[in-house]
Every structure is written in C-alpha cells, then in structure tokens.
Amino acid sequence: MEDQTPAVHEIVAYTSHLEVRGEVRAWPPRRILDVLNSEQIPYLTVDQASVVPLSRWGKAQPAIAESVILNKDEIILVWLVRETKIERPLLATPYKTPQRITAYSGPFVAQGTLHIVREATLAQALDAMSERFIALTEPSVLCLSVAELVLRGGIVLGLNKDRVMAMQVA
Fold first, then answer.
1. pLDDT of amino acid 94
2. Are residues 22 and 47 in the same domain?
3. Rounded to an integer, what distance in angstroms lies between the CA atom of residue 14 and that of residue 70?
4. E strands in the chain
5. Cβ neighbour number for residue 113 with a 10 Å cutoff
6. Using one digit for the tens of pLDDT, what is the confidence trace for 74-122?
7. Are residue 127 and residue 74 in the same domain, yes or no?
8. How many domains does the chain have?
C-alpha cells in the first residue's frame, strides 16, 4: 500500500471570476468527485496551475503558479480533462436512471446526464443527494459572459449544487 502513487487528475475549475487549469493529486488515490466532496478538506489544491480571469479570457496570458489553492465554496464547476482510473469496490446501490438536465450556475450553462434514483423527480433526487458536487456525464458547458468559452466532450463535470441557480430536465 505504501508504494501506491497518488491519483492525478487534470482539471479546469471555474469560479464566478476565474478559470484555473492544472492537476489535482489525490492521496490516498481517489476520484476527483471524492476529493471535491471531502468535507475534511475545504480547499482544492491545483498544481502546475494556470489562472486566467474570465474578464480577460482569450485576451491575456495566464498567470502560472506551481500551486493554487481554491476555496471549494467558490468553485462553480470542475471539468475533468484526464484522470487516473481508480478501482472502486462494487457497492449495492439503488437503481438509477439517466436524466438529461440543463443547469444554470453563475455565468455558466451546463448540460449533461445526471443519474437519479428511478422513482424520484429531479427535485426529490437533488434533495436526497448529500454531496455538494454532483456528477454530470456527457457534459457540455458554455459561458454566458465569454462567448468563446465552450467546453465539449468531457469525461465528467463536477457541478457545485450549492451554486446552481436553476435546473431543468432537458
């Protein structure tokens, strides 16, 4: 166990005002959503980071830092670019069905598939989810304040449900 290397996840995190690109190292190895939803860690450390204010997106060179610390409360969404695969034990979970949704959060409109308990409505499913960051698969995102900022073809989107202003079934 001691010779295990940390999981490395390449991400792009967005706040209301910043885009932060880089790597998140998880030790012990775990998925990016497990890191985001860890209540013991209020901050997300992004290594080999580049930071661009959304107001300067596409117009300015990013600031480069060995490490940037983000307050998880301020993160609206995290786009997973590349991940270290983590083996997960098989757990008995209730049957979930995919539901295509559109979420409006800060300057972002995100679309993707949210997996919810079969007999639940979207509102009931959100109420039942204890995690702060929810996973959207097959995600796409556009930024209303930066027309050129469009994300497509991601692995998973971690969406801070505390920052969602509105959500609807697509």
1. 65
2. yes
3. 10
4. 7-14, 18-26, 43-53, 63-71, 77-82, 96-105, 108-117, 133-143, 146-152, 156-160, 166-169
5. 18
6. 999 999 999 888 776 665 566 788 999 999 999 999 999 999 877 778 8
7. no
8. 2
Q: 3-class SS at 40?
A: coil
Residue 53 resides in a domain: yes
How much is the pTM? 0.90
The pLDDT, as a whole number, for residue 1 is 46
Are 115 and 97 a contacting pair, CB within 8 Å? Answer: yes
* Strand bridging mode 63-71 / 108-117: unpaired
The chain-wide mean pLDDT, for the chain, equals: 91
Q: Where are the alpha helices (DSSP H) in the chain?
A: 32-36, 122-128
Q: Which two tokens stand for residue 56?
A: 């300067």
Residue ending a domain, choose from 31, 58, 82: 82
Question: CA-to-CA distance for 104 and 143, rounded, in angstroms?
Answer: 10
For residue 12, give the amino acid letter: V
Rounded to whole angstroms, the Cα distance separating 63 from 149 reads: 18
Do 161 and 103 fall within a single domain?
Answer: yes
Q: Is residue 76 part of a domain?
A: yes
Domain boundary among 60, 82, 104: 82
132: pLDDT strictly greater than 50 = yes
